[in-house]
Amino acid sequence: MNKFFDNFYTFAGFGPAIKSELPSEAVLRSFEDKLPARLLEYWQEYGFCGWGEGIFWTVNPADYSEILDLWLAGTPFVGKDNYYVIGRSAFGRLYVWGETSGPSLDINPCYGMIFPTDKTEDLKKRGAERTIDLFFATTSKNSLEEEDIEGKPLFERAMIKLGPLDADEMYAFVPALALGGAPKLENLQKVKVLEHLAFLAELGEKQVMADIVALSNALHRDK
To answer: How far apart are CA 7 and CA 137, in angstroms?
Structure first.
C-alpha cells in the first residue's frame, strides 16, 4: 500500500473494504490502457467494493456505461473524451474518469448537477498513476455526504435507520428532489442504484456547473 492509498485507507478512515467482488481477467483486460494501471491493481487487491462502511464504492465501469450515457446526453461532454465511472457515493454521486482528462466529472444525480474539473494538464504533468493516487488521497467522507434541509450530514443516520447498503443499492430521496421532494432523513429509502440513477436522469435537464479550475487557469493565462 503506497502512502497515497494509505492516507485514504487509514488516515481518512475508509478501510477496510466491504462487500468485495473481484474482477475477472476479462474485465481487467478490457480497461488496460484506458484507466490507470494503479486503479486496476486496487481492483485486483480489494475488488469492486464499499469503503467507509459504504459511503463510497469503487465500481466496475462497464456496469455504469449506460447510466453515464444517460447523464451525459445533451451535454457538451458527449464525444469530448472517453469517460468511465470509477466510483460512486452512497447517495449515487458518480465520479468519472476521462482517458485524456482524468478525474474530470462529478455528477450529483440527486440535484441533477454535473461538476466538470478538467484535469488534462494535470494528467500530462503528473501521469495517470500519480493522478489516481491523488484522487484517493484527497477523497474525504465529508465530500461524499448529502445534507438534510438543516445542513446536517445524512449518511450515518441513514445507515442506522435503513441498514447498511449492498453493492447494488443507494440511499435515495423519495419523492425525488426534482419532483418536489425534500432532503430529509424520513424521505430516504434504500433503492437499486442503477435503476434509480436511470430514473433520475430522465426527470429533467442536467445543470452543467462552471469548471472553476478551467476558469482559474484562463485568468492566470490572461495576466
So the answer is: 6
Handedness of CA 140, 147, 108, 65 (dihedral sign): positive
Kindly state whether residue 63 falls inside one of the protein's structural domains: yes
In a domain? residue 174: no
Choose among 5, 64, 90: nearest CA to 39: 5
Any domain includes 213: yes
Domain hosting residue 69, numbered range: 3-145+195-222
**Residue range 157-196, pLDDT digits in tens:** 999 999 999 999 999 999 999 999 999 999 999 999 999 9
pTM of the shown model = 0.94
Q: How far is CA 205 from CA 34, 41, 46, 111, in A?
A: 29, 37, 36, 11
Name residues whose C-beta falls within 8 Å of residue 162's C-beta, 6 or more positions apart in sequence.
171, 188, 189, 190
The cell numbers describing 195, all together, are 435503476
